[in-house]
UniProtKB/TrEMBL annotation:
Annotated spans, Disordered: 32-52
Protein family according to the UniProt entry: Belongs to the DnaJ family.
Organism of derivation: Micromonospora sicca
Gene: dnaJ
HAMAP family in the record: DnaJ (MF_01152)
Entry domain remark: The J domain is necessary and sufficient to stimulate DnaK ATPase activity. Zinc center 1 plays an important role in the autonomous, DnaK-independent chaperone activity of DnaJ. Zinc center 2 is essential for interaction with DnaK and for DnaJ activity.
Full protein name: Chaperone protein DnaJ
Residues reported to bind Zn(2+) 1: C177, C180, C230, C233
Cofactor(s) annotated in UniProt: Zn(2+)
Keywords: Chaperone, Cytoplasm, DNA replication, Metal-binding, Oxidoreductase, Repeat, Stress response, Zinc, Zinc-finger
Keyword Zinc-finger: yes
CXXCXGXG motif repeat extents: 177-184, 194-201, 216-223, 230-237
Subunit note: Homodimer.
Length: 396
């Protein structure tokens, strides 16, 4: 929605509330009207659909405290009876012909109104409500600007991610020019005050009752200009270069985690602080271990006799081995836990190693093994399948 909409549309009337209505009253009215005009409740009714859009537009402004305050200020200055509509769509403040569309560049010429610097009515209000001209003070010159954040990606081995590691990281990104140290001027010279704005960074123009300030176009709002440019950066103060940083990845860093290095991004402009460097971590999978939070996971195959009779199982950890007791009659898929053998947390405590047992069924057997297994089967009680057999007999 445009600034023109804010002046011409009475959103309070749209929602059927007074200008002094509370936030709860506005919300309650909006919900009632939105429910009544919702397209799902009025299929094929274009008027209801348009009404729903209008109600939603009104609530988008009045339901936001900041937007509502700016809307009220704008209506107080230019709307709500300040202009009496004329036949040509304008108004008559003080008896003088006035067309509000002229402010928006919507007159006969159809272009932006050059009286407002070519930017039209939006620029006017951005000045008024941002503390610029028309709000009792000049536009602010461009001061120091924070540098942009930089993001890169690093692949870590599984073991390094679990234990923590410090790695050199080479980046090719914008940095401060070493020749001019960021001021953009040729060595031995300095930037000078802008001859247009005289170092203020802004210029002011009078338009009748209004005074408009804007960033100086000659110096781009900086207040200084470089007469003799640095041969290395050509006056920009920055160059793209390769730099190497030693980055510490803490123990337990996870795949997809972002490490923030404050002040290691692009340098700021005009002495502003540097941005941040964000390092996206990609962890290479390990051939043995998996990870679930702070726990390590490991799948270990065991034989059928080991599952039936039980056994002591020696398994690897990240820093050695551990022996786990497999009790007799262990089913496939059972998880054994080795406490404290997982990922070390920040507070010094560690997760666990979770060992999943996988009973291996041989695809081929020798004659002796088959005979032994058949003998075992003859001595083994049948599996408890009575509830299944009962259902099967229904279809026999």
């Amino acid at each position: 929605m445009s600034s023109k909409d804010w002046i011409e549309k009475d959103y309070y009337a749209v929602l059927g509330v007074e200008k002094s209505a509370s936030s709860d009253e506005i919300k309650k009215s909006y919900r009632k009207l939105a429910r009544e005009s919702h397209p799902d409740h009025n299929p094929g009714d274009p008027k209801a659909e348009e009404r729903f859009k209008t109600v939603s537009e009104a609530y988008a402004v009045l339901g936001d405290e900041k937007k509502r305050r700016e809307y009220d200020e704008m209506r107080s200055l230019f709307g709500s009876g300040a202009f009496r509509r004329s036949a040509r769509g304008g108004g008559q403040p003080g008896g003088m012909p006035f067309d509000v569309s002229d402010l928006f560049g919507g007159g006969a010429t159809g272009g932006a109104d050059t009286r407002f610097g070519g930017g039209g009515f939006t620029d006017l209000f951005s000045s008024i409500f941002s503390g610029g001209a028309g709000a009792g003070g000049p536009a602010r010159p461009r001061g120091p600007a924070r540098g942009r954040d930089v993001e890169t990606e690093v692949a870590l081995d599984f073991d390094d991610a679990v234990r923590g590691v410090t790695l050199p990281l080479s980046l090719r990104a914008p940095g401060v020019c070493d020749t001019c140290h960021g001021n953009g001027a040729k060595p031995g010279t300095q930037p000078v005050a802008c001859p247009v704005c005289h170092g203020a960074g802004v210029t002011t123009r009078n338009q009748g009752s209004f005074s408009f300030s804007e960033p100086c176009r000659n110096c781009q709002g900086v207040g200084t200009v470089v007469e003799e440019k640095c041969p290395e950066c050509h006056g920009t103060g920055g160059v793209t270069k390769t730099r190497t940083l030693n980055v510490r990845f803490p123990a337990g860093v996870a795949d997809g985690q972002r490490i923030r290095l404050a002040g290691r991004g692009e340098p700021g402009e005009r002495g502003g602080p540097a941005g941040d460097l964000f390092v996206q971590v990609k962890v290479r999978p390990d051939e043995l271990f998996g990870r679930s939070g702070d726990d390590l996971t490991l799948t270990v195959p065991i034989t059928f006799p080991e599952a039936v009779l039980g056994t002591d199982l020696r398994v690897p950890t990240l820093d050695g081995t551990v022996t786990l007791r497999v009790p007799p009659g262990t089913p496939s898929g059972r998880v054994l836990r080795a406490r404290g053998k997982g990922v070390v947390r920040k507070d010094g405590r560690a997760g666990d190693l979770l060992v999943t047992l996988d009973v291996v069924v041989p695809a081929k057997l020798s004659d002796e093994a088959r005979a032994a297994l058949e003998s075992f089967a003859d001595q083994t009680p049948p599996a408890a399948r009575e509830h299944l057999d009962a259902r099967v007999r229904r279809f026999s």
